[in-house]
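Researcher: Predict the fold of 5-formyltetrahydrofolate cyclo-ligase.
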Amino acid sequence: MSDLAAIKAAARKAAFARRKAAHAAHGPGRAAMLSEVLAGYRGVPLAGYMPIRTEISPLAAMEEAAAHGPVGVPVIIGDGLPLRFSRWEPGCATRDGPFGAQVPAVDDFFEPEIVIVPLVAFDRSGGRLGYGGGFYDRTLERLRAKRPTLAIGFAYAAQEADALPLEPTDQPLDMVVTERDVIDFP
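Model: Structure tokens for 5-formyltetrahydrofolate cyclo-ligase follow.
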């Protein structure tokens, strides 16, 4: 394991502990701030995610957004590949996807212009630490090569870190929404 990989692993371990404590203290549903942000983008195709483990849940905000335009969730196509996003609606039939996340039973792929990104940790420079598979980095790079794509990290405030070990391939966030505030990155 390289030095950077070891540093990232240690940062993830600490961040998972903070997220677990925040999830236990607040519960999964804290999407009010995210709903307020998304209200300014009604009808713009967006992708959220189906929360797993102790991730903060964007489902209430996704349900509101689905009344105004297409909403999708990520589908892992294979290792080393970008994510694809399949159309999701509240109450739609789902199936088990990789890593325990639910995905729509029938794939109906589209490209979002806004991506709500789950994360393990974030910092005040727009850095994001994910699970280590690089799926969102590859996906955001591909989408941003075609058109402006807004990446909104969604997390508990407790997931903030002073600074994160980042690599050149790590895609920055445009903003982070927590249960307490909205942090914009220039």
